[in-house]
UniProtKB/TrEMBL annotation:
Ranges where the Heparan-alpha-glucosaminide N-acetyltransferase catalytic domain occurs: 82-203
Keyword Transmembrane helix: yes
Residues that span the membrane, as ranges: 120-141, 153-172, 192-210, 230-248, 341-360, 367-386, 398-419, 439-459, 483-501
Pfam families recorded: HGSNAT_cat
Protein name as it appears in the record: Heparan-alpha-glucosaminide N-acetyltransferase catalytic domain-containing protein
Record keywords: Membrane, Transmembrane, Transmembrane helix
Lineage start: Eukaryota, Viridiplantae, Streptophyta, Embryophyta, Tracheophyta
Positions of the UniProt region annotated as Disordered: 1-23
Amino acid sequence: MVVSLTAENAAVEGSEDSGLEDGFRCRRRRGRGVGLLESRSSPPETGVIPDVEIVPMPMEHRPLTTAAEEDEPKAAGQPKQRLASLDVFRGLTVALMILVDDAGGAFPSINHAPWTGVTLADFVMPFFLFGVGVSVALVFKKVPNKTAATKKVVARTIKLFLLGLVLQGGYFHGRNHLTYGVDIDRIRWLGVLQRIAIGYFLAGMTEIWLVNDATVDSPLTFVKRYYSEWVVAILLSSVYMGLLYGLYVPNWKFEVPQSSSTNQNCSIQSGTVSCEVRGSLGPPCNAVGLVDRFFLGEKHLYQRPVYRRTKCKFPDYGPLPPNAPSWCLAPFDPEGLMSSLSAAVTCFFGLHFGHAIANFKGHMKRLLFWSITSLLLLLVGYILKILGLPLSKPLYTLSYLCVSTGISGVVLIVIYYIVDVKQLKKPTILLQWMGMNALIVYALAACELFPAVIQGFYWHSPENNLVNLSESWLQAVAHSKKWGTLAFVLLEIWFGALLLASSTGKVFT
């Protein structure tokens, strides 16, 4: 499907997030200080994911310092702090998700790549995971009580996972479907929020239990303090690569759900895929799909074929062409179990960037550190691609991991420089507010809960509702269905940001 710095330099510390109970009783997917944030309409407490805030200080270009002791008592009335550029990064990620999800059908160039390669849509998931890692590094810079911190991580992981299960498991049917409910026998176990929960849990546990107490005063001590996290990241990548190339994929059968949008007017109700191979990275016979079918069950995978626009040549989510291979209708989960092992490593690179904020004083040191890391990741990723490991978001290959994480780092560098170094807050204020409430935006807009609610009020027939009429009007004004859709999506993003700002009583000045 389906992700800060302030104008004034400040001391950064961890904060607890407002829980799912607050402001999310009827909302969809929710992610938090980890790439997806929660509502700030009430004091932070036990949100899904950690977050970081900022307190304004004089406008001198002093370096940010961190103090992430979220368990330490704070003086009465002392405000929580946020890292504004991380909020902007999250807000940008959520805005991108809405853009590519709602306008990707009209503009295939920004929609997900068919199977290999990367487009704008393919950077959304890594951006979310990268933001998770940065947040975790700041929140758990110091952990005086490891048991209490562990309980918080476990609780937030469970909340995020369950929320994703409700919102992405098939219970909500989204825009143009005034229904809800899911057959437990076919509920989707994994999704975007569940993947974020897995990455958050692994990064959080590693940061709490494996980081030593070495004082960072040189590059050597920096490596000494955090080397154990790289051991875990290498282990995850090694397990993934070993399974990807080592597992034997036999022939397998599948059934096509009668409700599948791609099964309309199609005679294929079941099929057999001939494989009997190892190391295949193509759509039908890869080890990623094998692991998911074995552990999760075919019925519990993403039912909209992810293979569209390959040999299947679906017009977005349209019906299957008559000459397409039968496996085009087979289920495959782009946020499955095995690929989530590789995806979690993106969180560890986010940790790496967050550690720079926590330990390096001075903007230029941080920017240099991030720039070198990002360039190395991009270089390694494209070398792996040249050597034969394709960039594949559905498989979350190592080459894709490196390239997408390198781009994530570059984007954070740009935002950090604009918002924190140059103190230019106003151009990014809407994105910042979206980032501070990213989970709400994600649930209401990206998961189409808000449009679905609006569509519930119509005139005489369900098609005559405010959402459809507004989009049709913009298409008529633009004399183009494609550009009218884009205008509608951009207005949707802008309206969502303003609505969040007004709901919190903030005034943009």
